[in-house]
Design brief:
By secondary structure, the chain is mostly helical. It has helices at 3-15, 19-32, 37-49, 53-66, 71-83, 87-100, 105-117, 121-134, 139-151, 155-168, 173-185, 189-202, 208-219, 223-236, 241-253, 257-270, 275-294, 298-317, 325-332. α13 (208-219) runs antiparallel to α14, α14 runs antiparallel to α15 (241-253) and α16 (257-270) packs antiparallel against α17 (275-294). The chain is elongated and about 100 Å long. The model has no long low-confidence stretch (mean pLDDT 95).
Length: 334
Amino acid sequence: QTATQIFDGALKAFNEKNYSTAVEGFARYTGMQPSDSAGFYNLGLCYARLNRDADAAPNFKKAASLRANYYSAWMQLGDAYLRMRQYSDAVTAFSSATTADATKSEGFYGLGLAHRNNVNEFEAEKAFMRAVALGPPRAVFYNQLAASQYAQKRYKAAIPNYREAVKLDPKLYMGWVFLGNSLDYDGQLAEAIKAYETAASIDPTRPDASTELAVLYSRDNKPAQCENHARKALALDPKYAGSHKILGVCLRAQKRYQEALASGIEAVRLNPKYADGFKSLGFTYLAIRTSDRTAKRTAQAKYNDAKAREMLAKLKELNATVDATELETAINKP
């Protein structure tokens, strides 16, 4: 067979999704035509389809070295490095792709993903902004740009980009959730609730939005709505400690202390390192202590005071980022 016939046969096998046969063909072809970038590029594609990225990457790299400004080869190499979690190498590959063709948004999008995974949100944001500017408008571009700004705690900047993402893809569940988060951090409570309610209506099988709605209704001093959403979240995922914790907060606000106590204990049982759970449980013990004092059950009050101190000790033991000062001050209050 001639080199051309081998190439055509390998391409036919590739199009028929017979990737192992295609690998053999393209490997033979590259041996016969070692200066043809197309052979190495297609061999890389075959390996990628076989989930053999460690074999795909050197072939994409070889293809890129044989042809100037080989945009597709650099893109495929970047994708392979992303899948292998070699993020610094992915940054280099996608940077080369953007140099090869600075008019294509996908290269900048890939570069943004590589920077995000390489924990460089500042550079990621710049790359995503370039992808957005080049267009066409895509929900994933705006969503990742917003996510990069969110990661930098620049919530006000993230909000319009999350809004654009969900405008382009109204069914983007996590886009609505993080829009709600951003609005909440920006102090827009009512708008945050609307965003979470939209998320919950898009996918009522996921507990994230219901849990967040419970948190916001608690903050909005609406314990009944808080309880309703917390129970919805627990019906979907009874093992999520955060939902148990917020249910305990809602019940405590309604002075249903024993139920609140049971929810709080379940939260820290499910997650023994849940600092915020211990803090919340400490406040529940304090609420019971205050109630017992009012009812002159001083022995029981002392017991609950001791339990609250136990929660504070646990909180400090965890070396948590959660501030223990508020709980400690409440415990020591006469």
